[in-house]
Amino acid sequence: MTYSADNVLQIAMQMERLGQILYESLAHRSDNEQITALAAKLVEEEKKHLWTFQRMYYSLSIDRCGPKMTEEQLTTAAGKFYKLILPSIGEVRRIALSEDTSRVLAMAMQMESDSIAFYLTMTASPGDASVIRNIVEEEKKHLAALRKLIY
């Protein structure tokens, strides 16, 4: 499927919402204060990312905007993301119970790396490839920020 700039951004915003939900779940499932604090920080990062993508979406010129994706289309696209990128509920539970913040960071970095790979497989409409490049650059910044938390 070929995606328009606005479709790619709608998918990106949905992906950030899913990431936010995952980290919120991790924060609520863990009794470890460090994991809870890290997960809360990751929730805030996902919110910032969502805001960035929303800003990109609303700044598109009218000629680059098509119809809003239907709930079914968005669910299908997000479903691919869910299967390819988000860890299973069981994995989140294991990480929450592990009391190991390095596992949380490793999971977050893997998700960012997988997100980048996902976007790079998308085919954009002519003239819209720059949107995918911009999203990939934002994801790379997020990955770099996560790496800084390790060191």
CATH class: Mainly Alpha
The CATH superfamily turns out to be: Ferritin, core subunit, four-helix bundle
CATH topology: Ferritin
What's the β-strand tally?
A: 2
SSE-based structural type = mainly alpha
Give the ordered list of helices and strands: EHHHHHEH
Spans of 5+ residues with little confidence (pLDDT < 50)? none
Strand content: under 5%
Ends apart, CA distance between termini: 40 Å
How many structural domains?
1
Classify the helix fraction into a percent range. over 70%
Q: So what's the overall shape?
A: elongated
Strands side by side in the biggest sheet? 1-2
Give the rounded overall mean pLDDT.
Answer: 82
Q: Helix segment count?
A: 6
Under the CATH scheme, the architecture is: Up-down Bundle
Instruction: Report the major sheet.
Output: 2 strands, parallel
